[in-house]
Amino acid sequence: MNLRNIKDRLKIGLTGSAVLLILAILAVILGTVIIGGYKSISWEFLTQAPTEGMTKGGIFPAIFGMVFSLLLMLIAVVPVGVATAVYLHEYARPGFILTKLIRGAVNNLAGVPSIVFGLFGLGFFIQFIGRGLDHSLAQNGLFGQPCILWASLTLALMNLPMIIVATEEALRAIPQAERAGALALGATKWQSIRHVVLPQAIPGILTGVVLVISRGAGEVAPIMFTGAAYYLPYLPKLPTDQFMTLGYHIFVMTTQSPDIDATMPIAMGATLVLLALTFSLNIIAIIIRSRTRSQLRKGR
Fold first, then answer.
1. CATH domain 41-299 topology
2. What residues form the membrane-spanning segments (predicted)?
3. Domain segments of the chain: what residues?
4. For residue 6, with 0-12 CB atoms within 10 Å meaning exposed, 13-18 middle and 19 or more buried, which class applies?
């Protein structure tokens, strides 16, 4: 065996060990959550509100609040992110100063810690915009307080770089010949983007949506200042209501509980539900992406 073969086998061994290490860490995490939480899972646990100081009862308000906030976040982040990516890739000149500024802002946003987004949401959305709206509309604390709207917008701002990057990668993968063909047939640039480019980029955009859902579901820091509540006896009905969410509920149960032995099984059960919901939402998005990709292939 020569030196080259030894080096190749050493590289294969190191990379394989790294993969096994990641799989082992994932298995330990999932095993700990499943073993500690499956006994708490029941129909009542999933459909009832917490009771007796959150040492009993269920987590339905937290599930409802998480889904509500994720939907609002997607409504805010996907159109803005896709439009920004289309501008950067299809219209902006690479060396133009505005292009550089936008790309610099996107790169900086991607590196900002999530707790900073929470403080920004508190100062900008609640203190500035919310209280400004209350003053203009002669309201008393309707918008100038933590609520699900401001929490969702804060999550949208935090996840905006992810949608932009995923959409740009999807646009970059579409051959220039497709655009040239549409223009040669008499289509305008916008018509070629709308009817040729964007439909083929949908699978890539959905990949970004999957990542955004996963990150948004588990984040606590951006929403603890902007809308999440310790405990609420009712479900949010309006975007201006506060809400419970699973990530913050788990944080509260594990750090603020006066009786950790009583709340730990509930916290583990809530963690298991959070993982199951996140995986389910990811699977749904992946199925939609696969069907869209299959339909595009059939249409060619």
1. MetI-like fold (1.10.3720)
2. 12-38, 58-88, 109-130, 142-166, 196-214, 266-288
3. 41-299
4. exposed
